[in-house]
Design brief:
Length: 66
Amino acid sequence: MSNVVELPIVTRLDLDPQRVLAGAMEDGMTEVVIIGYDKDGDEVFRSSLADGADALWHLERAKLKL
């Protein structure tokens, strides 16, 4: 048993991708768009949305929130 408590706060520190993805799954997201880099430094894009226009719409809305 661990005594480490994860706080639901915004941080300026980088987080482990596994932790971020686990949190997204716990939130029960219905649609996701993922952009990142693999271990070789190559850009990776994944989306649960089949339509690229829908994925782009979500990215543009996220830019406004960022």
